[in-house]
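Lecture notes, part 5. Sequence design as translation. It can be helpful to think of inverse folding as translation between two languages: the language of shapes and the language of residues. The source text, in C-alpha cells, appears below.
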C-alpha cells in the first residue's frame, strides 16, 4: 500500500473515531490546523508537555506559524498536557492520535521510558514518530526493538555553558541544583552539565533536588534549601520555570542580590529577570523552532516513503546558546 492510500485509510479511521468521540461526550485539548476533510495531505500531531509552561506554548506557536506558511504541504494537530507529571495523559494522547489516523507524531515526552511502548505501537500502526526536546531512553528503545530519531539540543552541553558562566562570575563556592523530573533524560543531562561545570570550577554542590520542572514546587524546594544551607550562594535551575520559583524563594529569604540564579530555556519572564539582575544566565534551545525541526524531519520521512526510498531518519542536533545580560536581545518595543 502506498502512502497516499495509507493516508486515505487513516482519514476513514479518523472519521469513525471522531464520530465515536462526539457521541460519547469525550474531549481532549486539541487544536487542528487545516481541514478535517480528506485533503490528501499528511497530518502531523505535535504532542508536548505542559502548555502552562511558556516554553511549550512558544513551541506550539512556532509550529502553528510553520504550518500556516506551509499549509499546502501538511495539516497539524497540536496537543499538550496540563501537568508536566501527567504521563498517563500523554500516553492517551498518543493513542488518540494514532486512532485518529495521523501520519506522523512529533513528541516531547514527559517521561523518557514510559512512552516508549506506546510509541512502538504507533510505529507498528504505520505512524512516523519523531522525538524532540527530551530524548527517549536508549535502553528501553532497545528492549522494545525500535529506533526513534531524536531532534533536539545537547542538554548537557547547554547546562555546562550556563554553569561555567556562573562559575566565572560567582559570589561564593557553595551551590544548589533544582532538577527536573528525574526520569526525564533532559533533566538528567542538565544536572550532569551543571555538575561537570561545578566540579571543574572547584565549587561544592550542597543540595540537588527535583522540583518537577514547576515554579511553585521550585519555590518550596528552594526555600527549604536556603533554610537548611544558608551558605548557598547560587541556585542552578534546570528550567526557567523553576528559576522563577527560586527567585521568589530568594526574595522571601531576604537574600535578593546575594544568591545568584541561572536557568534553562530563555522564556520571556527570565529575559526580563536577567535585565533586572535577578537571574545571571539561561540557555536558549530555540523553543519556537524545536517542534519545527521535528516536523520537517517527519515530513522528510513521509516524502521518502512516498517515493519508495528507505533512508533511515538520523538524529539531528539543534542549537543551544548561552544567554546573559550581554548577549540578550533588546526587548521588543
Amino acid at each position: 500500500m502506498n502512502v497516499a492510500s495509507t493516508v486515505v485509510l487513516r482519514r476513514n479511521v479518523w472519521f469513525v473515531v471522531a464520530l465515536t468521540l462526539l457521541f460519547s461526550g469525550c474531549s481532549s485539548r486539541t487544536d487542528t490546523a487545516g481541514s478535517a476533510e480528506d485533503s490528501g495531505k499528511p497530518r502531523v500531531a505535535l504532542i508536548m508537555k505542559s502548555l502552562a509552561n511558556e516554553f511549550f506554548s512558544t513551541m506550539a506557536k512556532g509550529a502553528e506559524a510553520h504550518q500556516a506558511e506551509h499549509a499546502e504541504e501538511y495539516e497539524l494537530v497540536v496537543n499538550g498536557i496540563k501537568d508536566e507529571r501527567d504521563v498517563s495523559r500523554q500516553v492517551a494522547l498518543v493513542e488518540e492520535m494514532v486512532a485518529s489516523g495521523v501520519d506522523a507524531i512529533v513528541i516531547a515526552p514527559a517521561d523518557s521510558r514510559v512512552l516508549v511502548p506506546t510509541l512502538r505501537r504507533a510505529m507498528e500502526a504505520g505512524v512516523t514518530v519523531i522525538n524532540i526536546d527530551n530524548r527517549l531512553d536508549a535502553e528501553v528503545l532497545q528492549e522494545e526493538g525500535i529506533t526513534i530519531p531524536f531532534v533536539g539540543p545537547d542538554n548537557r552541553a547547554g547546562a555546562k555553558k550556563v554553569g561555567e558562566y556562573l562559575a566565572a562570575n560567582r559570589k561564593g563556592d557553595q551551590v544548589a541544583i533544582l532538577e527536573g523530573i528525574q526520569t526525564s533524560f533532559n533533566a538528567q543531562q542538565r544536572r550532569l552539565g551543571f555538575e561537570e561545570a561545578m566540579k571543574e570550577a572547584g565549587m561544592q554542590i550542597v543540595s540537588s533536588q527535583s522540583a518537577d520542572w514547576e515554579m511553585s514546587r521550585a519555590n518550596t524546594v528552594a526555600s527549604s534549601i536556603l533554610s537548611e544551607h544558608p551558605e548557598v550562594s547560587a541556585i542552578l535551575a534546570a528550567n526557567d520555570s523553576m528559576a522563577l520559583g527560586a527567585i521568589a524563594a530568594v526574595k522571601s529569604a531576604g537574600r535578593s542580590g546575594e544568591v545568584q540564579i541561572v536557568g534553562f530555556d530563555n522564556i520571556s519572564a527570565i529575559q526580563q529577570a536577567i535585565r533586572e539582575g535577578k537571574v545571571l544566565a539561561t540557555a536558549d534551545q530555540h523553543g519556537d523552532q524545536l517542534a519545527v525541526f521535528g516536523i520537517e524531519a517527519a515530513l522528510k520521512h513521509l516524502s521518502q516513503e512516498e517515493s519508495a526510498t528507505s533512508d533511515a531518519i538520523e538524529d539531528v542536533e539543534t542549537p543551544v546558546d548561552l544567554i546573559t545580560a550581554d548577549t540578550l536581545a533588546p526587548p521588543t518595543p
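The translated text above is only one of many valid answers, since several sequences can fold into similar shapes. DSSP finds eleven helices and 13 strands in the chain.
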